[in-house]
Amino acid sequence: MGNDMIKRISNWYFSTKALPYWCILSFDCLAVFISGLLVFLVRNEDSDLLSRFVPVCFGLCVCVAAYILSFYLFHVFRGLLRYSSFVDLYRLALSGAVASFIILVLHQAELYFGLSKYVLIPRVASTILIYMSATMFMWCMRIFVKYLHDISRGTDKAEKTFIYGCLSGGIALAKSIRTETPARYQLEGFISGNQDIEKSWLLGVKVYYDDDSIVKVMKEKGVTVLLVSPLQSQRFTKRTSLIDALVDADIRIMMMPIAEEWDGTSDLSHTHLKKVEVEDLLPREAIKVDMQAIGSMLRGKSILITGAAGSIGSEISRQVASFKPSDLILIDQAETPMHDVRMYMAKHHPELHCETIVTSICRQERMERIFSEFKPEYVFHAAAYKHVPMMEDNPAEAVQNNIYGTRVVADLAVKYGTKKFVMISTDKAVNPTNVMGCSKRICEIYCQSLDAHQKTTQFVTTRFGNVLGSNGSVIPIFREQIMQGGPVLVTHPEIIRYFMLIPEACRLVLEAGTMGKGGEIFVFDMGEPVKIVNLARRMIKLSGAKNVEIKFTGLREGEKLFEEVLNDAEQTKPTSHPKIKIAAVREYPYEEALKNEVDLYELSLKGDKMAIVHKMKEIVPEYKSNNSMYEVLDKENCEV
Question: Does residue 341 share a domain with residue 224?
């Protein structure tokens, strides 16, 4: 019955916005007045207290006035009691100390002017006792209101949770979930990698050490959710055994999306955390770039981006737009995605002069008019056909779009005085086993030879592997297959790939463009490789789907088990950025590179697949086909 009454009272109070300020002030003043009367009674300072009752009351009114003044200075009565914290209690005690000092000053004035028969202001000992008693009353009132708030939040229906991390991020999350109404989470403990604080208590709950037994503890406590502090996300993603155990135990994992970062200073709420996707759990290191240097290079400049509707091109476009270039020229032949990019720019950068042009980079006359009109100072070339099986079947298109298209844009950049040309390449260009990878290697060769052939434009190439969430990449495909009930199709049980976030890859592209002086091929550190079958298993577990099988289909045409970032004969040199290195590669004379491209383009017009690929193998001797009909050409070369 008592608990029901408390709940009714708390529900009534917390259904309103808050108590008026005058109610809080009235209670605090009453606490001071009653504390004063109790102190006078206990100390029995005057044997005839009743005859001195009026001066005592006048003296206590002076004390209350001093407290009111101090409360006003420290804004004590303007807080919401239900959200009282240690800081509020500290300010309350500090305001009381200031009020006590004022009272002692007034007591000396009372003695000096001889007013004790009219106003009896407390002495030093009484003032201290009043301060301690009144502060205790006010603290208890605030703690009781906070207790009522916790009852009204309905924690009996909240999910039990642990927080991974005890630093500022974990504490901020804990405070956030404790102020939410109605409560969604009930904090049961913290997990820390610091064994020194194991079994300590923090915010009223126990701290546990991060070891393999923690999941058992969580299950015993009925925990269903783990909130990961943003400051501990990198450590957490490396704890693969813990992640697998959590997934097997049906404990949801909530963490900040990988594309977002918490600066450690702004307010952090548990609402910033989302249910994890497999991308969030891939081991990775945070990548930092000098955005200020990039901004100073691009601000106020005319910038052209090809392939602007693709995964990489569109992200580069968004990042470049934030640096406020004078002109942003976006080119792609995909109409609908380009419309999406156009709408984004109109919404988020309405002040920016942005041209969205639907055309192919292979249309030399159209590209000439674009360069002639806008004269871009920087070109980011991301346009390319990238799907390996498609290019195995269509080598002529790989030559015409990837190779010839790159030559069109590169030659126009030199002709119209572009300062820097940054080409987006791929790790498939290293020891290529397919047409797509070889076509990108030929693009690298031409850009590097053209850089040495002239002094107008600096040509820089960037190489990296797969990006998470790109169009047609493995994760969206797996996600769709899981939604359909499976099977999840993996080509080979041993196939591995490197992965990088699209925003991070694009920031590294911009950083490489900033540091490049011309002729370099920059290689990005992609971190640890990921086994695709393990990726598929984890996605199935995270989805909660049951009875979804993994089926191995065999390597696709031109596909290999792993992709190098560097050629076997290549070496790298460090740069100022730890994630970017420079590849030392074989250089080709411009005349030879140009002749090879012209001959290859003429072959592509005839459509003879074997002749096209044979020529590509002549240009790039390390190109050895794998699981492809073009393997016969490698055998012929061996016989010769």
Answer: no
